[in-house]
């Protein structure tokens, strides 16, 4: 830890005296000093580097913060995929358009947060870019949306929040014609009939009480909490919460589908295929 702090102080000192060094590629994968600091979780260093970039660059802070490595990932992509909301806030608030920069897989930082199940980082980026911009960022080139990838990863709590924010996604299909409901149906262990429990495990499963999922209030202010707080705040195995989250997610999808189909004027009654 001491060595890491010394390295961070040295790095900041070098950039203060030679600001153009922040665009230099420091690794074979094309990472800059900011990429490395984000990867290492050095929050203070990231904050210092962003301030240096904002105050010393001649080509614009946004252009520097958009510098990507060989995989097309910007520092914000890395911060979003690790779920560090302090680093996400520090970078994204310099320019909200950074939330929509795409890597070589056509994934935005907004998408990356969902892909890795980082709920708090996702909600933070959503609050920064807003719903309208979020609709431009929530899909990648293979047609999969943030709802597809969160269901595939069994991040049902985050899937529930996404449906609350972007109800239309329950109808979107990828290039293979797969909808979020198809993905849910392919998760038999998430259904009670697919959980083959015996003995005391079945008793525990049936007696476990789990709170109903509720849509979270999204704030623009960063919150000092980990993305796993919802899970850790209860005293039962994660597998049981996954099953219960699945139940509430399925309930939410049914409610959305029912509501839209009752409205004959709804523009979202048909499954939307990705546009090329």
From TrEMBL:
Assigned keywords, A-Z: ANK repeat, Signal
InterPro entries: Ankyrin_rpt (IPR002110), Ankyrin_rpt-contain_sf (IPR036770)
Source organism phylogeny: Eukaryota, Viridiplantae, Streptophyta, Embryophyta, Tracheophyta
Organism name: Salix suchowensis
ANK repeat copies, ranges: 29-51
Superkingdom assignment: Eukaryota
Signal sequence residues: 1-16
The protein's name in its UniProt record: Uncharacterized protein
Keyword DNA damage appears in the UniProt entry: no
């Amino acid at each position: 830890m001491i060595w890491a702090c010394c390295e961070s102080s040295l790095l900041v000192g070098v950039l203060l005296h030679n600001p153009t060094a922040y665009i230099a590629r420091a690794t074979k994968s094309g990472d800059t000093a900011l990429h490395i600091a984000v990867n290492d979780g050095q929050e203070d260093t990231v904050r210092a580097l962003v301030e240096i970039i904002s105050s010393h660059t001649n080509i614009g802070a946004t252009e520097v913060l958009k510098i990507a490595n060989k995989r097309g990932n910007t520092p914000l992509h890395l911060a979003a995929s690790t779920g560090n909301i302090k680093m996400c806030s520090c970078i994204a608030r310099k320019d909200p358009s950074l939330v929509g920069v795409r890597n070589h897989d056509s994934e935005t930082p907004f998408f990356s947060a969902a892909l890795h199940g980082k709920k708090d980082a996702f909600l933070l980026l959503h609050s920064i870019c807003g719903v309208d911009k979020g609709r431009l960022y929530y899909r990648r080139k293979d047609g999969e949306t943030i709802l597809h990838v969160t269901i595939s990863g069994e991040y049902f709590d985050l899937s529930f929040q996404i449906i609350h924010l972007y109800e239309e996604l329950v109808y979107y299909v990828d290039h293979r014609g797969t909808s979020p409901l198809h993905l849910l149906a392919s998760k038999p262990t998430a259904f009670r009939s697919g959980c083959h429990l015996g003995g005391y495990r079945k008793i525990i499963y049936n007696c476990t009480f789990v709170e109903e999922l509720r849509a979270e209030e999204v704030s623009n202010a960063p919150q000092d909490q980990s993305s796993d707080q919802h899970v850790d705040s209860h005293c039962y195995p994660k597998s049981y919460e996954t099953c219960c989250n699945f139940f509430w997610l399925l309930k939410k999808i049914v409610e959305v589908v029912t509501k839209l189909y009752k409205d004959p004027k709804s523009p979202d009654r048909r499954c939307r295929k990705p546009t090329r």
